[in-house]
Design brief:
Structural class: alpha/beta
Shape: extended
Oligomer: single chain
Number of domains: 3
Number of strands: 11
Radius of gyration: 31 Å
Number of helices: 11
Helix content: 40-55%
Strand content: 15-25%
Length: about 325
């Protein structure tokens, strides 16, 4: 994951959590966190329990997120050098004018003039803070409820466009033995008609989505429950998986038998020659080794949902 990808992800997360972006460049983002993002990222449970108890308006933290450390440090150093040169080049008349202005204005409180030191976080793939953002995004973004933005507004304010609710689920299928392979499947099913489509995520990529219900839109009545829709998706995936070639599993089972036979030939003589005091320990070690070999080599197929959502799309499908 390079710097541009990190920057794009961080920017999307901050926008999705409604944070206030104060300043940004291709190398950094200065942001005042929203209450939800502050709760996720700052680890201030006592402060937020105080806010919840008293009803006081929360004061969220402001951060400087640097997504390209080298570029940001170069820009900062160049700005500092330029400012120093301007100060040194100021004429005596300008210095006198600034001094006179200061006497005219009188005392200026320090908190208006002091450089505010922001907490800086360097975000790169593998950094603690970026991993925290990934975790927050996975937790909060595992389920969404979105509406398609209409391409054009209806001329008649009394005209209403029908929208159909779709259940979209991205599934991960893992084929595992001593080797591992993963496949991603994206399903969408209409909750009105039960129509099932694959590659649903590709369809969503071409549509503008919003969390707010657009004007002049009504949602059609659902004909399927979520449980029934999910059951249809699972059945469709199961039928697909049954048609796969599982020769890899046959080979993995053969390797499993070979490994079990190998450790059997090693441990059985040890158990036979062990004393009463050491025999139970050797047998326990043998059982643990068998379990490890089975976990490593035993072929298995597992399916799990990565994320899902309800997507209200234009039309009745």
């Amino acid at each position: 994951m390079n710097e541009k990808q990190v920057h794009k992800f961080v920017h999307r997360y901050l926008e999705a959590t409604q944070c206030s972006i104060i300043e940004k460049s291709p190398a950094h983002i200065t942001v005042k966190l929203s209450p939800s993002a502050d709760r996720e990222l700052t680890n201030r449970p006592y402060y937020w329990s105080f806010v919840d108890r008293t009803g006081e308006p929360p004061e969220t933290m402001t951060f400087l997120f640097v997504t390209d450390t080298q570029k940001y440090d170069m820009i900062t150093a160049a700005k500092s050098s330029s400012q120093t040169e301007r100060n040194e080049a100021a004429s005596p008349e300008e210095a006198a004018a600034n001094a006179a202005l200061g006497r005219t204005l009188g005392f200026v409180p320090n908190h208006f003039t002091a450089n505010v030191r922001l907490p800086r976080e360097d975000l790169y793939f593998g950094s603690r803070r970026l991993e925290q953002l990934f975790t927050a995004a996975r937790t909060s973004g595992s389920y969404v409820n979105l509406f398609q933005e209409p391409d054009r507004r209806a001329n008649n304010p009394f005209q209403s466009t029908p929208y159909t609710a779709w259940l979209g689920v991205n599934m991960r299928v893992e084929f595992a033995c001593d080797m591992k392979r993963e496949e991603i499947y994206s399903y969408g099913i209409s909750l009105a008609t039960g129509h099932l489509v694959e590659h649903f995520q590709d369809r969503l990529q071409e549509i503008k989505l919003t969390p707010r219900l657009p004007s002049n839109v009504h949602v059609t009545k659902n004909g399927l429950t979520l449980a029934r829709a999910l059951n249809i998706i699972e059945q469709s995936l199961e039928r697909k998986l049954k048609g796969y070639d599982y020769s890899w599993a046959v080979g993995a089972a053969a390797r499993l038998d070979e490994e079990l036979l190998r450790i059997k030939s090693y441990y059985e003589p040890l158990i036979q020659s062990a004393t009463e005091e050491t025999k139970s320990a050797v047998e326990e070690q043998y059982r643990q080794r068998q379990a490890e070999i089975k976990w490593q080599y035993e072929p298995r197929v597992t399916a799990s949902a990565i994320n899902c959502g309800i997507f209200h799309l234009e039309g009745i499908d």
